[in-house]
Write a structure and sequence with these properties.
65% of the residues lie in helices and 0% in strands. It is built from five helices and no strands. The chain is elongated. It starts with 7 loop residues before the first helix and ends with a helix. The relative contact order is 0.17. The mean pLDDT is 94.
Length: 99
């Protein structure tokens, strides 16, 4: 990937672009989906109401900072954590009936 190749600027541009740059707004839409249960909505949360969506937002912020600092090790760590949290959001949504 871009991080392994040392292409920090290109990776930072990708992080600053949709869908990552719009994730907070997208997560807000998700937690308003009528098909999701109250428990699912709470699990996803938002940046204001802690949940796995907040984890994604925080980890993407850490990733962006690591890329600015050209810290490959930190960027890879934040990327893995952001992916794990995003996978959880997707799992909750699929489990709740969203496709």
């Amino acid at each position: 990937g871009l991080i392994a190749k040392g292409q920090f600027e290109a990776a930072a541009e990708a992080v600053a672009s949709p869908p990552l740059s719009t994730f907070e707004a997208d997560a807000t839409v998700l937690v308003q989906a009528p098909v999701l249960s109250a428990e699912d909505k709470k699990a996803i949360g938002t940046i204001r109401r802690y949940g796995v969506a907040a984890d994604v937002i925080i980890m993407v912020g850490g990733l962006a900072e690591a890329l600015r600092d050209e810290d490959a090790r930190g960027a890879k760590s934040f990327l893995a954590k952001a992916k794990g949290s995003l996978d959880e959001v997707i799992g909750v949504c699929r489990g709740g009936g969203l496709r």
